[in-house]
Amino acid sequence: MPIGAPTSANPAAGRAARESRERTPLAAPPRSAMTEQGSPGAFGRGFVRRFRDANAGFFLVFLTVGAAIFLFGLAGTVGPYAAGLRGGNDPRSFLGVMAFGAVFFLIALRMMQIALTGAEHGRKSRIRGDAEHPWTVDHPWRPEGMAPDGSAPGGAILGHVAILSFIGLMNLALGSNNLVVWGLVLLFDLFGLLLLYDALVKVFQALRRVRPRVRWTTFPAFLGERLEGVFTTRRPLAATGPARVTLRCVEDKGGGGPDSVAEPFVIYTQIGDFPGGGRPGERVDTVRFGFELPDDLPRTHLLREEAVYWQVVVEVPLAGPDFTAVFLAPVYARPEPAGSAP
């Protein structure tokens, strides 16, 4: 049977266009830096326990240094001590000091947030341990309707603010006549524009208020078998073509030590076009999709530093920016029959 071919149980599931096993980096944070659906934020309930588990005390030093630098710049800008602190210096230099202190504080806060979130993942891994049915323990699956991956309160906003603030601070160097410095700053600016565009697209999608969800009709889906689901929205989308659904397997690598940070890599993709659009202006609120799963790839394993997970990316072409949503997919290995040989 061709990959993604429709079955009698799911005749609406279209066909997969192509399959790839090329290993490519994914521009996303590792799982250890993401908050699970339904879990408290890094600075929410259980903060003291996470702070202790992450040995995050040294982050307080960086936060204090950043706050002190900011306050020094503020004192040299306004207040009764401003004139004395300035002396013969340019008052604008204290604005730069304030900016540097704020950026230093935000970056330290983001690093602390990642460490606290990683400590929460580690705690859950130790508590839950191994299980014969891992899909019951390693993620709060809601097969009747799952929200997009990464929509839980997390560090996306703080991370974007920290990076954009740093890039803004780098632009102070444009006063230099060094062309190399100009080139580096402009390169950072281009990266900042990409981040800003990504953030604006997400805001635009949120304003559409379509509340995307995926309902899994196969739960869990086992390697070597079939994954099927239904993508739905509360408000129909005016699609300009068929929906494109991508199944991908991602693994985090490089997070094995205290000084290393795991990076996500896509190790497998399968792309298909599925009914749910095709004629200009057609209103779409449901897309049924299905994929044949390979049997030689790793199962979902979220509760470890180098996590493995499967995702489904739904893209609906629109007249404006296309609508895109990413969902975790419950792909596991079928349990061995009781009494079978190891």
Quick summary:
The protein has 342 residues and is α+β, with helices and mostly antiparallel strands. The protein has six helices and eleven strands.
Shape: globular
Uncertain parts: 1-13
Percent of residues in helical segments? 25-40%
Q: Which structural class best describes the helix and strand composition?
A: alpha+beta
Round the Cα radius of gyration to an integer and report it.
Answer: 24 Å
Structurally, the number of domains stands at 2
Q: Please give the largest β-sheet.
A: 6 strands, antiparallel
Count helical runs.
Answer: 6
Number of strands: 11
Mean pLDDT: 77
State the oligomer. Answer: single chain
Distance between the amino and carboxyl termini = 31 Å
Strand content: 15-25%
Order of helices and strands: EEHHHHHHEEEEEEEEE
SSE blueprint:
Elements: E1 15-20, E2 24-25, H1 47-53, H2 57-75, H3 82-86, H4 92-128, H5 156-170, H6 179-208, E3 213-216, E4 221-222, E5 226-239, E6 243-253, E7 263-274, E8 282-292, E9 308-316, E10 323-329, E11 331-332
Parallel strand pairs: 4-11
Antiparallel strand pairs: 1-7, 2-7, 3-5, 5-8, 6-7, 6-9, 9-10
